[in-house]
Design brief:
The chain is of the alpha/beta class and 534 residues long. Helices cover 37% and strands 24% of the residues. Helix 6 packs parallel to helix 7. The chain starts with a helix and ends with a helix. The structure holds adenosine-5'-triphosphate. Pfam families: ABC_tran (PF00005).
């Protein structure tokens, strides 16, 4: 065999092992180059990490693979031959074996496992065309066995652990894949965004098993420790370009941070130095402020007419709410703010009581609330970035009832700089920003008010590592300046890093409290012990 033939054989062998390839794909939105000649190769049976800071182009690339965003140029190879990426469609993505599971909206919590597995695919039917529930459940059990998911077919999804719910979503996406056929590619978009550590471990173990069984997986995540733990190859995007490609032992915390931020692998502090400058210029840290008077009290009304104080947060204090998905932790924040009705507990702040179901009064009384689903519940997607930022402080930008746009835009530009939002201009609609940057806008909107009480639900979900540090510093700075902060996070490491102490919520009630110093393990142990005890 001559040298040329050997090289060709290696090339052929390599091409055979590639499950998906993208070549020189570009996409421009107005003045923004979202993808700039991006190429990537995903090896069959690999778990391929896709990483990058907010606005680096990950979602655009995934949407292009799903056929819902048409690129300006580029080629795609799925199951063999190359096609022009501009001709790719959702139907073609499906036919080529591409399956997408997003953290939200991939399943229906109120339906059973069997119903979830049947929806969109068709229910088993009897001879007279009615649903054959018996066959339906039997089929669901087969799928559950195949994916080694230990739950009952007739269990309602909402009753399952978060990791089990995600595994059902994955089984739902892959159930029709023929075992004998070449496997497709499963794209998981931030699958662990709201899972605590224990649940993450369960899911990662299942994913490793699926990959060992030949399933190719693209794993999109901001969580460095998961990407280092689970992937065998990684593509890092930065500013729409491929910043690095890593395989095997090259994948480490340092090399990922270097790829994401552009810093050299040894200078770990690259991202946070800017953040410290930003914070210092924005808020005069009054480290000596310490804890002051009570800023927020939550009291439960008892049947005999007395009140039972359940939660108290002092000015300048950061208190975490730890609990599992479905524990009522997010609902509790919404009830305090009046976004969800409450009838059996009272909320008191420094300026008086906060009436139930009255967000306007809650805001007047100094409360601010950043919900978990910021885009659906807090953003005004069709309005500009400047308008989204000014909505909570309109009086500062208006005179005799008229908004002064120039002033509004100037203030918006200042916030964009301070919070490190990557935005083309203050006039661009919020939808023109990447998910993480939209989140920063919503946070900036509330933090600029310097509220008395700040209620934060999953403050850094979907936010990149640099921005996460910046947001933590901003929250600490707000607390140092006197704001009482109550924060929910499924990432107990985040709670331990931010909060001085925590309360544990289960079944919508405060059931325990943990004094600092907090660690992720302490919080995990206490929360799981509480769940077991119930
Ligand atoms: N529909 C759109 N219109 C205009 N600009 C857009 C649009 N979608 C994305 N962009 C821009 O393209 C760039 C890449 O965005 P993309 O959503 O792909 O980033 P991302 O890596 O997924 O970020 P994140 O982690 O924050 O979700 C960003 O600058 C964003 O503002």
């Amino acid at each position: 065999m001559n040298e040329q033939t050997a090289t060709n054989l290696t090339e052929v062998e390599r091409a055979r092992r590639v499950a998906l390839a993208v070549q020189d794909v570009s996409k421009t939105y107005g003045a923004t180059r979202a993808l700039d000649r991006v190429s990537l190769e995903v090896t069959g049976g690999a778990i391929h990490g896709l990483m990058g800071g907010n606005g680096s182009g990950k979602s655009t690339l995934i949407k292009m693979l799903a056929g819902v965003v048409t690129p300006d140029e580029g080629r795609l190879s799925l199951k063999g031959g190359w096609i022009d990426a501009r001709s790719h469609t959702p139907a073609r993505a499906k036919a080529s074996g591409l399956h997408f599971v997003h953290q939200q909206n991939s399943t229906f919590p109120d339906l059973t496992v069997a119903e979830n597995l049947a929806l969109g695919r068709g229910f088993e039917s009897t001879a007279v065309k009615s649903i054959n529930w018996h066959a339906q459940k039997a089929r669901a059990r087969q799928v559950l066995d195949r994916f080694e998911i230990d739950v009952a077919a007739d269990a309602h999804l909402v009753r399952l652990s978060p990791a089990a719910q995600m595994m059902v979503a994955i089984a739902r996406a892959l159930q029709d894949q023929d075992d004998t056929d070449e496997r497709g590619v499963l794209v998981l978009d931030e699958p662990t965004a709201s899972l605590p550590k224990h649940e993450v471990d369960v899911l990662l173990t299942a994913l490793r098993r699926y990959a060992a069984d030949g399933q190719t997986i693209i794993y999109v995540s901001h969580r460095l420790e998961e990407v280092t733990a689970i992937t065998n190859e990684v593509t890092v995007l930065r500013n729409g370009c491929v910043a690095s490609r890593l395989t095997g032992a090259e994948i480490s915390h340092d090399t990922l941070v270097a790829g994401i931020t552009g810093s050299s692998p040894s200078s770990k502090q690259g991202g946070s130095r800017r953040s410290n400058d930003v914070i210092a210029s924005r808020v005069h840290l009054s480290q000596s402020a310490g804890f002051r008077e009570t800023a927020l009290t939550l009291s439960r009304r008892t049947p005999n007419g007395t009140t039972d104080e359940r939660l108290l947060v002092r000015a300048g204090e950061i208190v975490g709410i730890a609990g599992l998905l479905g524990s009522g932790r997010s609902r509790m924040l919404k009830q305090i703010f009046g976004a969800t009705p409450r009838d059996d507990f009272d909320v008191t702040v420094r300026s008086g009581t906060v009436p139930p179901s009255d967000m306007r009064t809650a805001m007047k009384r100094g409360l601010a609330f950043v919900p978990e689903n910021r885009l659906r519940e807090a953003a005004l997607p069709e309005l500009s970035i400047a308008e989204n930022l000014s909505i909570t402080s309109l009086s500062e930008h208006s005179r005799v009832g008229w908004i002064r746009p120039a002033r509004e835009r100037k203030a918006a530009q200042r916030l964009i700089n301070e919070f490190g939002v990557r935005a083309p201009s203050t006039r661009a609609p919020l939808t023109a920003l990447s998910g993480g940057n939209q989140q920063k806008v919503i946070l900036a909107r509330w933090l600029q008010r310097r509220p008395d009480v700040l209620l934060l639900d999953e403050p850094t979900q979907g936010v990149d590592i640099g921005a996460r540090n910046e947001i933590h510093e901003l929250v600490r700075a707000a607390a140092s300046a006197g704001t009482a902060v109550l924060v929910v996070s499924s990432d107990f490491g985040e709670l331990a890093a931010l909060a001085q102490r925590a309360v544990v919520v289960s079944g919508g009630e405060v059931v325990d409290s943990v004094d600092g110093p907090l660690t992720e393990d302490i919080l995990n142990d206490i929360v799981y012990a509480q769940e077991k005890a119930l």
